[in-house]
Amino acid sequence: MPVLSEDSGLHETLALLTSQLRPDSNHKEEMGFLQDVFSEKSLGYLMKIHEKLRYYERQSPTPVLHSAVALAEDVMEELQAASVRSDERELLQLLSTPHLRAMLVVHDTVAQKNFDPVLPPLPDNIEEDFDEESVKIVRLVKNKEPLGATIRRDEHSGAVVVARIMRGGAADRSGLVHVGDELREVNGITVLHKRPDEISQILAQSQGSITLKIIPATQEEDRLRESKVFMRALFHYDPREDRAIPCQEAGLPFQRGQVLEVVSQDDPTWWQAKRVGDTNLRAGLIPSQQFQERRLSHRRAAGPLPSPQSLKKPPSGLRRSFRLGRRERPGSLQEGKASVAAESPELLTYEEVTRYQHQPSKRPRLVVLIGSLGARLHELKQKVVAENPQHFGVAVPHTTRPRRSHEKDGVEYHFVSKQAFEADIHHNKFLEHGEYKENLYGTSLEAIRAVMARNKVCLVDVEPDALRQLRTSEFKPYVIFVRPAIQEKRKMSPMSPACEDTAAPLDEEQQEMCASAAFIDQHYGHLVDAVLVKEDLQSAYSQLRVLLDKLSKDAHWVPVSWVR
Known about the structure:
Strands 10-9-8-7-11-21 form a six-stranded antiparallel sheet. Strands 13-18-12-19-20 form a five-stranded parallel sheet, sandwiched between helices. Strands 1-6-4-5 form a four-stranded antiparallel sheet. It folds into five domains: 10-59, no CATH class; 68-111, no CATH class; 136-215, PDZ domain (Pdz3 Domain, Roll), CATH 2.30.42; 229-302, SH3 Domains (SH3 type barrels), CATH 2.30.30.40; 320-562, P-loop containing nucleotide triphosphate hydrolases (Rossmann fold). It is extended. Helix 4 (68-81) packs antiparallel against helix 5. The chain is built from 16 helices and 21 strands. It has helices at residues 10-20, 28-38, 41-59, 68-81, 86-96, 98-111, 170-174, 196-205, 289-302, 335-343, 377-387, 418-426, 445-453, 467-470, 508-524, 537-553; strands at 136-142, 149-153, 160-165, 182-186, 189-190, 208-215, 229-233, 259-264, 270-275, 284-287, 350-356, 367-371, 392-394, 398-399, 414-415, 430-436, 439-444, 457-461, 478-484, 530-534, 556-559. By secondary structure, it is α+β, with helices and mostly antiparallel strands. It is 33% helix and 19% strand. One of its GO terms (cellular component) is membrane. Its main location: other. Residues 364-549 form the Guanylate kinase-like domain.
């Protein structure tokens, strides 16, 4: 084997060692594994970085000066006072840029070596009755962030113990504090006879370094297991309003529709989670699905639910896709289903979701439009199809009325007999249906499948109650809630269930529109993927096209059951 000189680098040693690996029959797998590991480019790069750092460490480089910021300010003063030439003006401009000034500040910080945290000396008054191995002194450095741990009083021993470690918090990052550890002192203050809320206050008010005296748990629990469970929240949550949470400061607030990454489900009552997209690495407490369902069931049993009439359900009936005016619409055969849903609402907690990217080889997702009164969904979807009929399509409805001279079967409608229509109703072939002037109208599931089979994006507008039937892995619906803008100057927040009065009082029709939007938001908002506020047909069309483009290009969160 060749001999390396003293000047040989670590990466050269590694390369030479790799070349000498020769798998034999007895250790073929082990030698092959080592060869793969040592041949990794990333490992070679790390070795080179290591050598460079060692080289500069041996050289013991010293900064030319410790106050580059002060020098730069002096130079700028001189330049501003003197007659400025073009090159001086350029230098002055460079020295004034925030990025260069920040770099000089970093230089001075490193040169003066004042970046290390200043920790207090270890306390000498460790109680004599503790064995050296039974007590642990932990020093943590934190800023204004919470410590990331909750405590509780042990019912049997009365000791103050660590109840949970919040993933990503200061305590978790240190690796020195574990669930079950007994807490004796915080910054020299004994906590044996203090209440947990008093101790939490001391921890919250401590800045910089915190010294903890801890008796390690007899059997330290395993570190929190890595979890990659994503949940879409189906309700709003504010820990400040939750009297059951063990520590309000550790709670994680969220809004309905936000996706949460659940990092620990070890506690059956309180999960640890982060909001997807948050820059904060520390997890927070949220009620577990089981606990939240139990609370909702208890609240429901505690008092009677409001009747469907008291919920001010907006007028229901056949969709405008059946070409009926708002004031002409009769009662729908689907109205009974909606009433049942209102009387027995599901327990809205969380829905497990995953990222889904549509593949060109797969059928397009179904696009479902739901809308409050005045949304005019039929016009909107017809405009999308008219602009690009090769890519978009609509489900052709069925009807029992006679075909008119200019109409073609399968184009405007599927014209069928009343007996055939009623048979299809009996076999649950219709997504929704209704009666108008003694004629039946309906949208069948097969009509939707026919559009999707031609590899077109099918747009349907339905009563919101039909969403439950469409939310399957077959259709993977993308639900868009279209709500009309009452007036140009009247604010109508996409996430708010009601209109905000900033203009003249609403007339009766506008009040109906607001009530309709509020009802849909309250009872079906958790099923909505996007909200579109419509001021006029063109603006709504532009918004819709943006959403449709993103649907084909971007990844979206969908229920896990749709892709498994």
